[in-house]
Amino acid sequence: MPHSVVLSGRTVRLEPLAPQHAAAIAAAGTEDRTTYAFTPVPHSLDAAEIYIERALAEQAAGRALPFAVISTADGRVVGSTRFLELDYWQGPLVWPSVPGVPHGDPLTSVPDAAEIGNTWLSPRAQGTGVNTEAKLLMLRHAFEAWGVRRVSMRADARNLRSRAAIERLGATCEGVRRAHSRGLDGAVRSTAFYSVLDEEWPMVRGILEARLAAPTARTAADPRGPLVCA
Q1: CA 38, CA 42: separation in Å to the nearest integer?
Q2: For residue 92, with 0-12 CB atoms within 10 Å meaning exposed, 13-18 middle and 19 or more buried, which class applies?
Q3: How many degrees, rounded to 5, is the angle at CA 154 between CA 133 and CA 72?
């Protein structure tokens, strides 16, 4: 399992998610919840404690690396995100394959591919550049510290806000898997899949750095309208 790290930027700091974040996670999650229709976000202190406990269980099992998203302006927790679906391609080929298991010492292994997901931000942080810088920090760590070949992202196909945010990062849409899983609302959802490959990282990094250098404007919705990802 990769070591926990603190990823620091100009406007945001990503700290390893820990039990002491529970009250702050609960406070962030109980602000205006109108943008959380497709995203599991804790709604009370008890829910935040369970949320963190489950995230840390996933980390202990080697399946995730969760973070608290903290605004550097005031030190407040404004959301959470994580690496997950860690995959390892080193070592001898075996059959049947065992996905997600590193070859050699798991304490020093780093993944060859990963996903960024379970991301949510409080309304005060949405549209401020926090998500852009958080993704830049995570992508830079994945490609430049771990040396991964691919970082993937996904969203409920109905979640146009999240899909627009992912596309603005420069990620490539791989398509929509129809009737993929059960959604947060209980409906059977289709899922849009995106990825960034290692050879695409310099271009994506340039996009993110240029966006962060430009004036940030808070917008209520993406002006491009419905997205098409086939």
Answers
A1: 13
A2: exposed
A3: 20
pTM of the predicted structure, to 2 decimals: 0.89
Quote the CA–CA distance of 121 and 193 in Å, as a whole number.
Answer: 20
Helix 45-60 to helix 22-29 angle (10° resolution) is 120
Q: Is the pLDDT of residue 219 over 70?
A: no
User: Nearest-CA neighbor of 154 among 167, 141, 137?
Assistant: 167
Q: How far apart are CA 54 and CA 120, in angstroms?
A: 16
Question: Using one digit for the tens of pLDDT, what is the confidence trace for 155-192?
Answer: 999 999 899 999 999 999 999 999 999 988 889 999 99
- Residue 39, pLDDT score: 87
Helix (H/G/I), strand (E/B), else coil: 210 = helix
Residues facing 71 on adjacent strands: 12
Q: Say which residues have a Cβ less than 8 Å from residue 134's Cβ, sequence separation at least 6.
A: 9, 12, 14, 69, 81, 119
- Residue-wise pLDDT for 71-91, tens only, equals 999 999 999 999 999 998 887
